[in-house]
Design goal:
With 715 residues, the chain is of the alpha/beta class. The protein contains 21 helices and 31 strands. This is Cleavage and polyadenylation specificity factor subunit 2.
């Protein structure tokens, strides 16, 4: 039998919800993307939670929240343990996306759905980086399966996945873009021909985009007219996605026109986003990589864009005039963009310029409606430090949790010390103990070691365990510990030395790798900065929430910079690929049904659009047999070079299966098979591939044959 292929959506079908799907090849299960929305609603992940133990591998196509946002939660809270495969830019930019989300929410709330440690746990331990066109053959349970990443053209490192087993080749292509842009080349999806199954999205099936020049002019003209009118421009953007295209365009325009208006990129990880882009030129368009190879000019060495990663830094610019700010997040559900919208929306001179459609149900989507609302209600939250009675109540609660009294003394210590006399603690045999023995009793009881009070070994153990050689004064009768203890790692050669401890710190450009500046990742990066560390360790606080009504007087405009193929282009590409079977995902119900009907009429009859939790089987109607060529047959085979491959004729006879269920193939004249005809020594010539008239004409001309072109054909 052939490979059994089944597919089931967990989220993101007949809607614009995040992408998350199961693909099963025999008994091996892939998770295709693991997306979430900006509200981080755990109800969306209930279908994933029910199947998390069955997942053997995860394939991530893009670094944004809609494609990998649930990874930290799935690995940190749902106990997903499968390896994650993606390209290196998706890996690096995905960390930045998730860090920005957590830091933006921690600044105004007690966000604990997932933590920075959860992010580090999955991105440092479970990610396997792949290059484009790199064939990775899985092992173990996935023996016989090959996965390959190809360029999708939507986001940096974005991937079209090809999954192959036996005669089955499955293409997973969502959010692709065929046009070449400033920082990315187009997708290679058109290079695939007649795959067994194509899994693709219907997100843009009903949209038609304007020409690139018209779009660019509209974008710049809107910005410049606002600035000249003494207004500011807010561009809500994602952390590290399509903002790279906008940065290149604005940087180029500011340099060409020598503009003095402040241009700001404001996210919690803005420095790291640009650093990652500067180190990923080989994943970008040919123009960018060739320019760097010839002149060493890095397109992301920005000179006009101010990189700010906190509100304090942004406010310190003291800019009172017009300015352009690219701030996260694009949905306006959190982050600096939400704060600036509330502050700027009341000024009719300002402009809020959207470059991508906001997810359904978000503030950005509400503002993009036709007609735009005159007023919107926004819930704003902030954290304030506890003071007065609230602070005292909090400290009292913490003392109770730790088992301390009002003076901060452990009850265990009080029990031991209350019987201590002027000459020392009272012994059980009626005598008195020395100060050292008394210390041993106190420390032993506090630590739970329960050593006899008159045995000095307990004191020595505690000194070694807790004090690292610290010797308290001889008259001390209470536990004493040094305050500056440092836990040191040791190996067989002595103390482990971290070379990064001896490097000069870099102020601005450090790579994100861990939740604190003291913890370095495997690449020598640095995590959040000092200001963000203070935010993470801010002491007792409370969250104050307030619903306010924002009068929207500023201009609202949408210019499509999403970087996805539109409906007309999608249909052309799908007709060229011409898959045998199709599965449609990620698109509104209207767009999905429209594309399904079109594909049934014009591309292939087998088009599926399953619902959440619905399995569909898309196996090919073929039987597959594995055949092993015998050594005698291989010695008689004559290979001919054909491009990158070698081909040969094979005449043989299939024998009986052996122990490994693989059929042996002998040459026809082998004595093991009787009454077989003698092998044919010569074969008719065949041509493999396609004949192009231009190549054929060139060949005939080289052989001295005169060729002339007519209206109908070449003669």
């Amino acid at each position: 039998m052939g490979t059994k292929v089944k597919f089931m959506p967990l989220c993101g079908v007949h809607s614009e919800a995040p992408l998350c799907y199961l693909l099963q090849l025999d008994d091996f299960t892939f998770l295709l993307d693991c997306g979430w929305n900006d509200s981080f609603d755990t109800n969306l992940l209930k279908p994933l939670q029910s199947v998390v133990k069955d997942i053997d591998a995860v394939l991530i196509s893009h670094p944004d929240t809609a494609h990998l946002g649930a990874l930290p939660y799935a690995y940190g809270k749902l106990d997903l343990k499968a390896p994650v495969y993606c390209t290196r830019p998706v890996h690096k930019l995905g960390i930045l996306y998730m860090y920005d989300h957590v830091l933006a929410r921690l600044a105004v709330s007690k966000f604990n759905t997932f933590t920075l440690d959860d992010i580090d746990g999955v991105f440092e331990k479970s990610i396997v980086d792949l290059k484009y066109s790199q064939h990775l053959q899985l092992t173990g349970k996935g023996e016989g399966i090959t996965i390959t990443a190809y360029a999708a053209g939507h986001l940096l490192g974005g991937t079209v996945w090809k999954i192959t087993k036996d005669t089955e080749d499955i293409i997973y292509a969502v959010d692709y873009h065929h046009r070449k842009e400033r920082h990315l080349s187009g997708t290679v999806l058109e290079t695939f021909v007649r795959p067994a199954v194509l899994i693709t999205d219907a997100y843009n099936a009903l949209s038609n985009q304007a020409f690139k020049k018209e779009r660019d002019h509209l974008f710049i003209d809107s910005i410049m007219s606002t600035l000249r009118g003494n207004g500011s421009v807010l561009i809500p953007v994602e952390t590290a996605g399509r903002v790279l295209e906008l940065i290149l365009y604005l940087e180029q325009h500011w340099a060409t026109e020598r503009l003095a208006y402040p241009l700001v990129f404001l996210t919690h990880v803005s420095y790291h986003t640009i650093d990652t882009a500067k180190s990923s030129l080989e994943w970008m368009s040919d123009t960018i990589s060739k320019t760097f190879d010839t002149s060493r000019d890095n397109a992301f060495e920005v000179k006009y864009i101010n990189l700010k990663h906190s509100r304090e830094e942004f406010d310190s610019m003291l800019t009172k005039g017009p300015q352009v700010v690219l701030a996260s997040t694009a949905s306006l559900e959190a982050g600096f963009a939400r704060d600036l919208f509330v502050e700027w929306a009341g000024d009719p001179k300002n402009l809020v310029l959207f470059t991508e459609r906001g997810p359904a149900g978000t503030l950005a989507r509400v503002l993009q409606a036709e007609p735009a609302p005159k007023a919107v209600k926004v819930v704003m939250s902030k954290k304030v430090r506890l003071e007065g009675e609230e602070l005292q109540a909090y400290e009292e609660e913490q003392r109770k949790l730790k088992g301390l009294d009002a003076a901060g003394t452990s009850p265990a210590t009080d029990t031991v010390m209350e019987n201590a006399g002027e000459d020392g603690p009272e012994r059980t045999d009626g005598g008195t103990q020395s100060a050292e023995a008394a210390e041993g009793q106190v420390l032993d009881q506090v630590a739970g070691l329960r050593a006899p009070p008159n045995v000095n070994g307990g004191v020595n153990r505690l000194r070694e365990t807790f004090c690292d050689g610290f010797t308290p004064p001889a008259k001390a009768v209470a536990p004493m510990f040094p305050d500056d203890r440092v836990m040191t790692d040791w190996d067989e050669y002595g103390e482990v030395i971290n070379p990064d401890d001896y490097k000069a710190p870099e102020a601005d450009h450090m790579e994100v790798g861990s939740p604190s500046a003291a913890n370095k990742d495997a690449n020598g990066g640095q995590g959040v900065d000092e200001g963000q560390e203070e935010m993470l360790d801010e002491g007792p606080t409370k969250v104050v929430m307030e619903e306010i009504t924002v009068q929207v007087k500023s201009k609202l405009q949408y210019v499509d910079f999403e970087g996805r193929s539109d409906g007309r282009s999608m249909k052309t590409i799908l007709a060229h690929v011409a898959p045998l079977k199709m599965i449609l995902v990620h698109g509104s119900a209207e767009a999905t049904e429209h594309l399904r009907q079109y594909c049934i009429r014009n591309i292939c009859p087998h088009v599926h659009a399953p619902r959440i939790g619905e399995w569909v089987e898309v196996s090919s109607d073929t039987n597959v047999f594995k055949v092993r060529l015998t050594e005698k047959l291989m010695t008689e085979v004559i290979f001919k070079k054909l491009g990158d491959y070698e081909v040969a004729w094979v005449d043989g006879v299939v024998g009986k299966p052996e122990e490994d269920d693989v059929l042996p193939l002998w040459p026809c004249n082998d004595g093991t098979v009787e009454d077989e005809p003698a092998p044919q020594k010569a074969h008719k010539a065949i041509f493999i591939g396609e004949v192009r008239l231009a190549d054929f004409k060139q060949l005939l001309t080289a052989k001295g044959v005169q060729v002339r072109a007519s209206k109908d054909r070449t003669t």
